[in-house]
Amino acid sequence: MISISLCMIVKNEELVINRCLSCVADIVDEIIIVDTGSTDRTKAIVQSYTESVYDFEWIDDFSAARNYAFSKASKDYILWLDADDVLLEQDQHKLRALKETLSPDTDSVTMLYHLSSDEYGNVTFSLRRNRLVKRSKSFRWIGPVHEYLEVYGNVINSDVAVTHLSLNHDPDSGRNLKIYEKREAAGESFPPRDLFYYANELKDHRQFEKSINYYEQFLHTGKGWIEDILTACSRLADCYHELGNEQAAFESSIRSLQFAAPRAEFCCRIGYRFLELNNYNTAIYWYKLATELKLPADYMGFHNPSFSTWLPHLQLAVCYDRIGEHVLANQHNETALTYRPGDETMLANQAYFRTKLKELQDEGERQGV
Fold first, then answer.
1. Domain check: are 145 and 41 in the same one?
2. Where is each Glycosyltransferase 2-like domain found (predicted)?
């Protein structure tokens, strides 16, 4: 059985760090905590779990801090988490099983990263991350902000999920944006990946016009990970929507088709535009396509399952109702309800369609059909 070092970097995480550590403390064999300047009770809390607590002077470089934490590990594999991450009970069991069965020739294990869920437990935003890596490979973190772990070799995809449970307590709100602005002011030339992530930070801080500029710079490089390219198209559409330019938002969605086969998200975005224009049959085409598209099991990019599940079915219910196809409309609304059984809009639709279908049945009986 392999041994595991948990390596984390933290700062002012007293509200969440106990929750994180308590869910993995009896699974991992070593806990390494690197503190980048806490002024609250974070260090006191983590010291109840481990003596391996190190101070690291913050130098506006997440990779430097993470690589320092990795350098302190001594076990076979390194698991990394952020302070507001947890492993739910079922994923704790899966991690234990993985630890007992993992082949020592494995270099990296990816895990799902669930970033948000709705009130019905449906994951609404997720991706995969290289989460458990062989220490002897000396894999390194790259990039001062929005860092990534550069791995190679024998990589396997697990069904373990890490769940992000933020309390919206960010002790350094805007820190990433400030790092980018500082680098920009120093005249630094950003590589494509940083152009993309700077644009994301600008968008998150509602600087939409500047964000558009950086997304365009990123796309015009002709470089970058395909998933970042597609996300840039999606977020360009969001920016233009916020600025009230719906045609440009639509064109940003269409632009994604230059780079890859249709994805469910863009099918829904395109379908919505045609729905707005009362072109229901074309909207139906795109929404139906969204329900048919599947991602591979080893997909690593950002993913919102809503775009291939309840959302297109709800919109298909709207479209079919508009063209008088109430039986089909009802079927799609019922499908949407399987994902969100208490959704008030869908339940109102259900009552409406039941009335419509009863009217159709009564009309048929009167006509002897």
1. yes
2. 5-96
Count the Cβ atoms, other than its own, within 10 Å of residue 88: 14
- Torsions phi, psi for 113 (to 5 deg): -125, 105
User: What is the span of the domain harbouring residue 197?
Assistant: 175-317
116 and 221, same domain (yes or no): no
Q: Are residues 8 and 147 in the same domain?
A: yes
pTM: 0.90
pLDDT higher than threshold 60 for residue 208 = yes
Lookup: tokens for 139: 């894999």
Task: Of 222, 83, 193, 67, give the one whose Cα is nearest residue 140.
Answer: 67
pLDDT value at residue 172? 62
Q: What is the pLDDT of residues 21-37, one digit of tens each?
A: 999 999 999 999 999 99
Residues 15-20 have a mean pLDDT of 98
Q: What is the domain-level CATH number for residue 249?
A: 1.25.40.10
The whole-number pLDDT of residue 297 equals: 76
Distance of alpha carbon 91 from alpha carbon 196, whole angstroms: 32
3-state helix, strand, coil in the chain (%, to 5): 50, 15, 35
335: helix, coil or strand?
helix
Q: For 47-174, where are the alpha helices, taking DSSP H only?
A: 62-71, 89-101
